[in-house]
Amino acid sequence: MDIFVSYLNEACIIISAICFAIGWVYIRKHRVRIHRRWMLTGVVFAALFFILYAAKTFLIGDTEFGGPKSLKTFYYVFLQTHSVLATVAAFLGVITLIFAARGRFSRHRKIGPWTVIIWFITAATGLVVFLLLYVFFTPGETANLMHSYLGH
Question: Count of alpha carbons within 13 Å of 17, Cβ hemisphere only?
Fold first, then answer.
């Protein structure tokens, strides 16, 4: 179940990035309605990722890095960098959406490109984390938060 949800999560991130890229192309062509549809579709997939990720983390748990010990420090520094970027991207995404929803398009236009670029980087680094955890190496152990919290 853990690996299935992880693959589903990664698919959501990749699909959201593709939607954002298509939306960006359409806004460059001044096709606002099509841009809006693609961007909102990307937001839905990003939100679905977040919901699934939070549920997986709480109910199933986080998977430890199962690769060689020589790469463990690199992996965890890379993971923390990815996590910070993901948080920044989510925060900027909410602000970007609020500007669009309120019709503040001059501000939306200023922050939007930064938001989507950071999201692309987040999606790419998330893919690397996924590959390191589930494809290149055998996954480590998984423990849910309650299990870890209770010390079992």
Answer: 18
> If we measure between CA atoms, which residue out of 60, 84, 77, 88 comes closest to residue 132?
77
d(CA 131, CA 67): 11
Q: At a CB cut-off of 8 Å and minimum separation 6, what does 41 contact?
A: 19, 23
State the Cα–Cα distance between residues 31 and 146, nearest whole angstrom. 48
Give this prediction's pTM: 0.88
Angle at 85 between CA 107 and CA 21, to 5 degrees: 60
Q: What angle do CA 123, 89, 137 make, to 5 degrees?
A: 30
Q: Please give the Cα distance from 101 to 146 (Å, whole number).
A: 38
Token pair 């925060």 in the structure block, residue: 91
pLDDT tens for 88-113 read 999 999 999 999 999 999 999 999 99
Task: Check the CA dihedral 101-107-111-113 and report its sign.
Answer: positive
Q: Is there a contact between 8 and 100 (Cβ–Cβ < 8 Å)?
A: no
Place of tokens 């192309």: 25
